[in-house]
Amino acid sequence: QVTSFQAVAVRSLSTSSPHDHPEHGRLVYKGNLAKTVLGVKFFSYSTSIFNLFMMPYIMLKSGIGVESLLVQAAFYGLIGIFTFVTPITLHILTKGYVIRLYYKDEADTYTAITYNAILAEKATVFHQKDVKIPDITKMFTTFYAKTKSMLVNPTLFPNPQDYNHLMGYDKSSFFKFEDLEEVKEADKR
Q1: How many domains does the chain have?
Q2: Which residues cross the membrane (predicted)?
Q3: Secondary structure (3-state) at 128
């Protein structure tokens, strides 16, 4: 318990922000549905495991083994859908949900933390130049980091400039003030 107190004391004396991560950089985004996604996936996995363990007991007590082959196939298919398809579908839909997003200024890299299939946190490191915005708005994709789809909520960025830099909006091809001045000088000549 003394070591825990020492760690808290050292952390409180540190000059870095509590949102900084030594390996990933500065925290620029935190998803508000992280606990919900984790809870839903955990519930789905636990009910699937429960189904797998209860199937032999249900089959033994219900006498399904004596029925026709068609009834057996329908029963196993229905149980299979709820046991395997639901967790797989949930994982496919939520695998790109960004729990936390860190940014390293010196390297211009982002680290997106997501959940993998076994509910562990997975870090994906990418550069801002690897970010691609889909041409057509997709339901569970805000941007692509290399080839991986990522989902963030733009309103949850505490600093809007961080979102603009992530999406590349700060490097847009629209007129900048300097470009406007150059056009005015060219018109005068």
Answers
A1: 1
A2: 42-60, 72-94
A3: helix
Assess if residue 44 is contained within a domain.
yes
Contacts made by residues 58-67, CB under 8 angstroms, sequence distance 24+: none
pLDDT tens digit string along 82-138? Answer: 889 999 999 999 999 999 999 999 988 999 999 999 999 999 999 999 999 998 888
185 is a domain residue: no
Q: Which residue has the tokens 């909520």?
A: 153
Task: Tell me, yes or no, if the pTM score tops 0.85.
Answer: no
Q: Can you give the pLDDT at residue 73?
A: 80
Decide if 7 is inside a domain. Answer: no
To 10 degrees, what angle do helices 86-94 and 34-62 make? 170
User: Residue 131 belongs to what domain range?
Assistant: 23-167
What whole-number distance in Å separates Cα of residue 45 and Cα of residue 94?
A: 14
Helix (H, G, I), strand (E, B), or coil: what is residue 68?
Answer: coil
The owner of tokens 């982002």 is 110
Highest mean pLDDT among 28-42, 79-93, 164-178: 28-42
Q: What are the Cα distances from residue 98, in Å, to 86, 105, 140, 166? A: 21, 19, 11, 13
Show the tokens assigned to 66: 């004596």
| Among candidate residues 36, 48, 162, 177, the one with its CA nearest the CA of residue 105 | 162
Three-state SS at 99: coil
Asked whether residue 183 is domain-assigned, the answer is no
What is the per-residue pLDDT across 53-68, written as a single tens digit (0 to 9) for each? Answer: 888 787 777 766 566 7
